[in-house]
Amino acid sequence: MNDQSPARLAAQGQLDAYNARDIEAFAAWYSDDIVLMTQQDGQVFCEGIDSLRERYGAMFEATPDLHCTLVQRMVCGDIAIDEELVTGMKGGGTVHAIAIYQVRGAHICRAWFVREVVPE
Length: 120
Known about the structure:
Elements: H1 6-20, H2 23-27, E1 30-38, E2 44-47, H3 49-62, E3 67-76, E4 79-87, E5 94-104, E6 107-118
Parallel strand pairs: 1-6
Antiparallel strand pairs: 1-2, 3-4, 4-5, 5-6
């Protein structure tokens, strides 16, 4: 278990940039051909670095209180799995999420997400 593995570093780096709402720092952790999908049905909701910048950049600008708290992280080889709680989104509430990041080199190349809104 390597605390400095590329998967662990990429997962933490993108989380830190997400919480800073810094789109360029966030995008720097992703490969140019990034694909983001929902885990349950495999639906692609973001493909390519330009799409990622557009989607997340708009979200960062629109949600000044956005914050993701890491509950736990597991790393095995080139995969990091994060359990997260996201607050500050439009519409309020807390989102409980699982993010599965596949890392190639030093960049996240694929990610799958499971999300549920936590009842208040």
